[in-house]
Amino acid sequence: MTPGVTVHVVPDAPALADAAAEWLAQRIARTPALTVLVATGQTPMGMYAQLAERVRAGTLDCSGVTAVQLDEYAGLPEGDPRSLRAWMLRSFVTPLGVQTVVPLLDPAAFTGRLAALGGLDVAVLGLGPNGHVGFNEPPSGPDAPTREVALTPESLRSNAAYWSGLTVPTRAVTAGMDVILGARETLLLVSGAHKCAILSEALDGPETPLVPASFLRRTALTVLADRDARP
Ligand code: GLP
């Protein structure tokens, strides 16, 4: 796949879920053993629900897919409800019948396992309100490796919405920019007016570590945005 950016604007979040599910379903149909980096966060949840619906209906088989974890809070005790791995399992892995998971705990083990798999076929990403992808917080350059990071105040605020009543851990482990930019294809999902300015910086501004998502333009990138995020 030649690097290049395609931007599709759809009317609203349900249309985004449909288009995104269709995008990934086509790739899984073509390559049943697809290796997919799987974002959590709110934006892809409609997409995953649509894919699960297809699996239930028998029109999509994800049993050959490998799901690769994008990010995780650091230092959570086993079974903590805030675990992003648990979120990925309940929203993507289990409902889609995916059999193989590459967890993100130890950066060295993760990097080694990914290399053994031959890298990522597809990265499915959301856009952080500060331009982060995964937890590659600004500033993160294109070579930033898989590592533990301190979360920015903005990410602590935006992630608080996921865990009402629970505090957000202050540190996280993230797949590196090097891993993400190495994916053969990338799907970036963006929904809502609160993402409009940062999406414009990522797509129309300079490539800069201050907006890590701006480096996605170096890849074979499909952006699916709703009209609130990309008027
Ligand atoms: C979070 C996560 C990302 C996610 C992004 C967008 O902080 N670290 O993996 O993709 O920010 O989240 P949302 O889709 O909820 O806006």
Features:
231 residues; alpha/beta; Rossmann fold; 7-stranded parallel β-sheet; 3-stranded antiparallel β-sheet; binds 2-amino-2-deoxy-6-O-phosphono-alpha-D-glucopyranose; Glucosamine-6-phosphate deaminase; Glucosamine6P_isomerase_CS; identical protein binding; NagB/RpiA_transferase-like; Glucosamine6P_isomerase
Explain what the structure shows.
Helix 2 (45-57) packs parallel to helix 3. The protein is built from 7 helices and 10 strands. The strands form 2 sheets. The chain has a 7-stranded parallel β-sheet with strand order 1-10-9-6-2-3-5, sandwiched between helices. The mean pLDDT is 96. It has 231 residues and is an alpha/beta fold. It has one domain: Rossmann fold. 2-amino-2-deoxy-6-O-phosphono-alpha-D-glucopyranose (GLP) is lined by residues 39-43, 70-71, 125-128, 134-135, 155, 158-159. GO terms for molecular function: glucosamine-6-phosphate deaminase activity; identical protein binding. This is Glucosamine-6-phosphate deaminase. It is an enzyme of class 3 (hydrolase). Its EC number is 3.5.99.6.
Global geometry? globular
Per CATH, the class reads: Alpha Beta
Q: Describe the largest sheet.
A: 7 strands, parallel
Number of strands: 10
Spell out the blueprint of helices and strands:
Blueprint: E1 4-10, H1 13-30, E2 35-38, H2 45-57, E3 66-69, E4 71-73, H3 84-96, E5 100-102, H4 107-117, E6 122-126, E7 147-150, H5 153-160, E8 171-174, H6 177-181, E9 185-190, H7 196-204, E10 220-226
Parallel strand pairs: 1-10, 2-3, 2-6, 3-5, 6-9, 9-10
Antiparallel strand pairs: 4-8, 7-8
Helix pairs in contact: 1-2, 2-3
The structure holds 2-amino-2-deoxy-6-O-phosphono-alpha-D-glucopyranose.
2-amino-2-deoxy-6-O-phosphono-alpha-D-glucopyranose is lined by residues 39-43, 70-71, 125-128, 134-135, 155, 158-159.
